[in-house]
């Protein structure tokens, strides 16, 4: 028996007898403001690892019964219900599982949700389409109502903005990743810090987006271009939402929009993707572009400054999770790193606390090679943040929005 098989055998023995992992710690970050009305809510981001990717070829260290969807989905739903977030952002949800499992189950708990599969579903027969994975957003209906939703298809945006770039057509357009956005509106129950807001401020817009960016480390340029297209689409959505909500003649400013951006970005903290999101800018000659021919077509997607040679986006974002708190959100045999994130508008939101990591000592003591595991149903860990949101203006209520989609 070779060394790898020996290690796997030992791992399987330990798997059956291993103790449960300790409860993940709650990391407090701040206290609610009791002097003015604020909206306090929790948000979860979770890549649930869809069934067709959970193969023995990919996860040879994991026994077949642990990989089975019938086993894993119960644990996933139990985890979602345990943390009971007000907004839930999921990736790698199969179409059939959304409509036949997650949606009906979570509706019983007071949620509603939206979903879209990856773009390849459009080219498939109905019998195959149900197995295509995609992104989902659930929201607690007691606190939020849905104004509209919007699908962001990166391959279609690449085609529309290629401007003759072979790299845009051959590298970006061939990847069918998506983003999914929902413009939510707060209800009175969301303002739960004990101070009732002015009636004109109750119905605040909150743009929520989930995304699943391309996975391959060899395509860091594609990841960055997809992220730039995502931010441009969100800019357009916020201009529509804010523009329709303000009085006539008032200039809409996306930087004032309350944005919540969650997802599996398949990118480490030092990547161009996270640099662009965190700093609102990226150099046109950033190494992640790989010196490929994107510059002219990206000027249609993102504002560009000749003076600084940078592309920008208009949002002021911060990530709730860094490696100081969460060393890894993806934990497999051959890769461990933080690639899932929850970004929030830092001028209107403050994190009050977040869910910490699975205990590192438990991994070491039980020789856990990677996940999924008997007690961890995905190769990703869920992220959970409690946020406090301030009103940005006196809203016009539900009738102030004009649905775009």
Structure write-up:
There is one protein chain. The chain is 27% helix and 25% strand. It contains 11 helices and 18 strands. The strands form 4 sheets. It has a 7-stranded mixed beta sheet with strand order 1-17-18-2-3-5-4, covered by helices on one side. It has a 6-stranded mixed beta sheet with strand order 6-7-8-9-16-13. The chain has a 3-stranded antiparallel beta sheet with strand order 10-12-11. It has a domain at 21-147 and 178-216 and 226-268 and 319-389: Endonuclease/exonuclease/phosphatase (Deoxyribonuclease I, Chain A), CATH 3.60.10. With 405 residues, the protein is α+β, with helices and mostly antiparallel strands.
Summarize the structure.
It is built from eleven helices and 18 strands.
Topology:
Layout: H1 3-17, E1 26-28, E2 39-47, H2 64-67, H3 69-83, E3 87-94, H4 95-107, E4 111-117, H5 126-129, E5 133-140, E6 144-153, H6 154-160, H7 166-172, E7 178-186, E8 205-212, H8 220-245, E9 259-264, H9 272-279, E10 281-283, H10 295-298, E11 304-305, E12 310-312, E13 317-319, E14 330-331, E15 336-337, E16 340-345, E17 349-355, H11 360-365, E18 383-389
Parallel strand pairs: 2-3, 8-9
Antiparallel strand pairs: 1-17, 2-18, 3-5, 4-5, 6-7, 7-8, 9-16, 10-12, 11-12, 13-16, 14-15, 17-18
